[in-house]
């Protein structure tokens, strides 16, 4: 009777032990999944921050937002690296680089045109028309202010 009882206790002990290992394994998988979801959420937040600074730059042509965008992109790249081996990461990295390159092109083009009327091509155009006005004022036929 003792042998049967001892065997039963050993069986239940081993069963509970294995069940505990199984539970710990699945609990660690749940925590890992939760961490990945949080990492994806962080990437999304950083992407939205980049978009906000991009739109602020486009609306205001202020280089302050270009600098903010650059900092946000660095945060976004760091957050995307935390995603590890998820299948979405390989496409994400290439798309982020394209997005960053295209935004830099927009910044360059905006600066080339001129952020204010005293910068870039806008300044050249403004100076040219002022020179035309000066020459017209010198002539007897160019009094266009009347």
Please give a quick description of this structure.
This protein is mainly alpha-helical and 146 residues long. It is built from four helices and no strands. Helix 2 packs antiparallel against helix 3 (88-113).
How would you describe this protein?
With 146 residues, the protein is mainly alpha-helical. It folds into 2 domains: 2-105; 116-146. It is 84% helix and 0% strand. The chain has 4 helices and no strands. Helix 1 (2-60) runs antiparallel to helix 2 (63-81) and helix 2 packs antiparallel against helix 3.
Distance between the termini: 123 Å
Strand count, sense and barrel status of the largest sheet are:
none
Total count of strands: 0
The assigned structural class equals mainly alpha
Q: What is the overall shape?
A: rod-shaped
Radius of gyration: 33 Å
Oligomer: single chain
Number of helices: 4
**DSSP strand content:** under 5%
Mean pLDDT: 82
Low-confidence residue ranges: none
Order of helices and strands: HHHH
């Amino acid at each position: 009777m003792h042998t049967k009882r001892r065997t039963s206790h050993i069986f239940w002990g081993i069963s509970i032990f294995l069940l505990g290992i199984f539970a710990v394994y699945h609990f660690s998988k749940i925590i890992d999944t939760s961490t990945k979801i949080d990492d994806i959420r962080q990437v999304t937040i950083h992407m939205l921050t980049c978009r906000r600074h991009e739109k602020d730059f486009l609306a205001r042509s202020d280089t302050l937002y270009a600098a903010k965008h650059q900092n946000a992109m660095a945060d976004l790249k760091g957050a995307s690296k935390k995603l590890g081996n998820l299948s979405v990461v390989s496409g994400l990295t290439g798309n982020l680089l394209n997005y960053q390159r295209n935004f830099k092109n927009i910044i360059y083009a905006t600066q080339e045109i001129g952020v204010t009327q005293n910068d870039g091509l806008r300044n050249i155009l403004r100076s040219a028309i002022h020179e035309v006005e000066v020459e017209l004022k010198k002539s007897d036929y160019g009094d266009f202010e009347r």
